[in-house]
Task: structure prediction
Amino acid sequence: MIRALLAILFVAVVIGVAMALAGQTGQASLVWLGWRIDTSAAAAVVALVLAALAATLFWQAVLWFAAAPARAARTRAEARRREGAECLSRGFVAVAAGSGVDARRLAQKAAEYMDDQPVLVRILAASAAEAAGDDVAAHAAYAAMLGFPELRLAGYRGLMLIAQRKGDALEAVKNAEAAYGLTKTARWAWRALVEARLAAGDWDAALALAKEALERKIVSPAVAERTRAALLAASAARRDLSSEPKALDEALELASQAAKLKPDFSPGVLTAARRLAADGKATRAAQLIESAWKVRPHPALAMAYRDLNTAETPRERARRLTALADLNAEHHESRILRVEQALLAGDARGARIHAGALDQARASARVCGLMARIALAVHEADEARLWIARAAAAPVEPDWSDIDPEGRAFAYGSGDWSRLVSHYAETGELAHPRLERGERVLSELPDLPVAYQASTPFFTADNADILAPPIPDDPGPYEDDAALSAPRPSPAPGGRRRTVR
Result:
């Protein structure tokens, strides 16, 4: 408005100046109540514009005073809104900090100040009640959210979490199903339903959810594929326990799909290889294990590969398993496999050489047992005892814990399979339920002689009544079996026994 008045005034001044400069000032007369005013036209125009400007300013002042009460009300409302927004911000910060008392106090103040933001106030009230540990108030707040379309999904999620904390699985699943029916893109609802199906051992229903997740893009393709592969393997493992031919055929089909989808999931590959071997298809089983070994070696795969051919000599078996190790030469399992096959072939020196690639400084119980077997192979019973003693305090390898004391791999129930599926789907890594429970594993420790044997020069010399040779700082490479078994020279006749100091 002010800009318009200024523009009019500017135009009037320009007109007046133009008329004055043109020499045509003109005449203007005003007669009013007996008064007569004579002036030039330019002056009259300027006076008229000034009068209009004064009238406009007067009218604006009248309107400003008339709107003062409404303006004051708006100012108060804006101040309340700012105060409410501040309470909301501080309240959510208190919830994040876990201060339930402060959060509830701020939620109440926000409710008093912010009548135009009921959604945020309700969310803060529910979150504050949860932070304060008041499940009754939190349940009431989340239940009230169900009456608002924009808050319904948040209400179902809050009710589901409260039910889970109380251990009410049925109520939690009920709310998750309601949320999943409301929107097909709620990842938390999908995850809750999958976990519920896994806990119930309903692999088929969980597999259907995994397919839906991929179609609706609830999760990434990698997570969906891992979930499907693990569920297929779990279904195959369950059918593999049956004695019905139809169930066994289904086990082979499901396990083959799992192995093709994710060859790094060893349980699925192992089930497929076992079913193929049982059907007389050892070559296909071997190819399946070899493909899995290239991706992720596992001791259970090596054991299954070993048992594919039972009509071969130990040296032939050693060569076959060494070839398997060469498929992923730098992996820890491949290094262990080379040592074991060297021992199987009777090559103690080669086993010692291959063992040099293992981390002996931080050796696991399994590696300690392997080193003890090497020591016994070269007739060093005392060294074997040291390794066995060290194995008692050494950690167990996670993958080795998947094999029970009877040599069965992944012999798990529904609960453990649920753990396997859930962990692998989220991380792509194997879970190890037996290790988490601290259960016994298949022992790799060799049997030691009951009594000490002549395994060092000291005992050998003492039994032969001769002076023991000095032990050098660097004894050099181990002798082979023939040199160790060679007869020692007899003492000279008449010689007396010398005491070793």
About this structure: Confidence is low (pLDDT under 50) at residues 455-501. Residues 2-66 form one domain.
